[in-house]
Amino acid sequence: MKLKVFILAISIAISVAGRVHQVFIKDVVQPLYPFLEVDPITARSLLDNDFESGTEDPWYDSSPSTVHWIVEDFSTPTESYPAPAPLSGTKYLRAIRDANRTPGQLILSTIKFTAFPGDELSFDFWIRSRYTGGNALELVLSVDTVEKSLINLSGYSTSVNLEWRRSTVVILEDGSPPTDVTLIFYGYCGANVDDAIGLDNIVLASLPCGGIYNTASGTLSSPNYPSPYSFDEDCRYEISIPSDNRIKLNFSYFNTESGFDFVTVYDGATPASPVLLRISGYNSNPSVTTTGRDCLVIHTSDSKNSLAGWTATYASI
Ligand SMILES: *[C@@H]1O[C@H](CO)[C@@H](O)[C@H](O)[C@H]1NC(C)=O
Ligand SMILES: *[C@@H]1O[C@H](CO)[C@@H](O)[C@H](O)[C@H]1NC(C)=O
Ligand SMILES: [Ca+2]
Ligand SMILES: [Ca+2]
After folding, report:
1. Distance in angstroms (rounded) separating the CA atoms of residues 253 and 30
2. How far is the CA of 258 from the centre of ligand 4 (A)?
């Protein structure tokens, strides 16, 4: 903050002398969206947007020309060519042009967020144009400013595309390490009255978690371990050993957000079974033994703050 005030003071001083100040003012003072300050792991949990609240956050428009994204309500179109009825709700993002319908490029970006392996992004889109291929829409993944195209939807830009469609793309391959990334929709909207682009129902989904364990011994871990588990998880690990023995479950590492992210171990196959252990926070090698051959482990996390999680081995005894 002090630095910003200092730079502002310098820029004002420079402004007396010439035009250089405009660069300073633009870079330092203008884009104070509070969500730009969010750390990447928290940003991840904010990414979904159905635009029903009327705001684009944490996606933001940095389109360089007169074409921009606006949250439009189906009942009050901002452009004279109406959008098709959305797949759900009434609001969506739409490309709008100036009064002359000047064509131009569109850019819609996320803030930087941590992508986990297997993450998928789903969204509804509508793109049409008077002439085939007249408009463009592409989703790009940016890692340290290196961009990779995830999907190119420009092929749907035809005069007969009068419907919203849903698209799902993998943004980080299963097995990759968690990575801080930015997602960018690049678009181009032409000058015809019926040229249009819309986006809605953006959802980031993680890989399914938990699993079924039928061997006499094995290892289970929280999602992404030893990288942080994700938010809003509800993972079931169902252990059922082949012989009529008991199961010893031993956590060799355990650290979750204390009071918010829990592991519950049940003495049986369902959550109706007695609870053997329910823990959160840092725990040094917790260990339990069941009375029978079945054990259910449930891992839950809330909507913010995640830690390395846990790993455990089990054995038939
Ligand atoms: C996207 O696809 C269209 C044709 O469907 C093609 O003309 C265009 O060059 C593609 N854009 C990129 C960036 O690959
Ligand atoms: C559990 O695992 C830890 C670390 O691998 C080990 O040191 C400890 O002896 C084990 N405890 C039991 C009760 O098996
Ligand atoms: Ca919507
Ligand atoms: Ca948490």
Report:
1. 45
2. 8
> Phi, psi at residue 135, to the nearest 5°?
-120, 165
Bridging pattern class, strands 91-96 and 68-73: antiparallel
Q: Note residues around ion ligand 3 (Cβ under 5 angstroms).
A: 50-51, 89, 91-92, 200
Distance set, CA 278 to CA 45, 230, 298 (Å): 25, 19, 9
Position 56, amino acid: E
Ligand in nearest proximity to the CA of 149: 1
For the chain, 317 residues long, give each residue's pLDDT as a single digit of tens: 333 433 333 333 333 333 333 334 444 444 445 566 788 888 888 899 999 999 998 899 999 999 999 999 999 999 989 999 998 999 999 999 999 999 999 999 999 999 988 899 999 999 999 999 999 999 999 999 899 999 999 999 999 999 999 999 999 987 788 899 999 999 999 999 999 999 999 999 887 889 999 999 999 999 888 888 888 889 999 999 999 999 999 999 999 999 999 999 999 999 999 999 999 999 999 999 999 999 999 999 998 888 999 999 999 99
pTM across the whole model? 0.70
Which residues, in sequence order, are CB contacts of 229 under 8 Å at separation 6+? Answer: 222, 223, 256, 261, 299, 301, 306, 307, 309
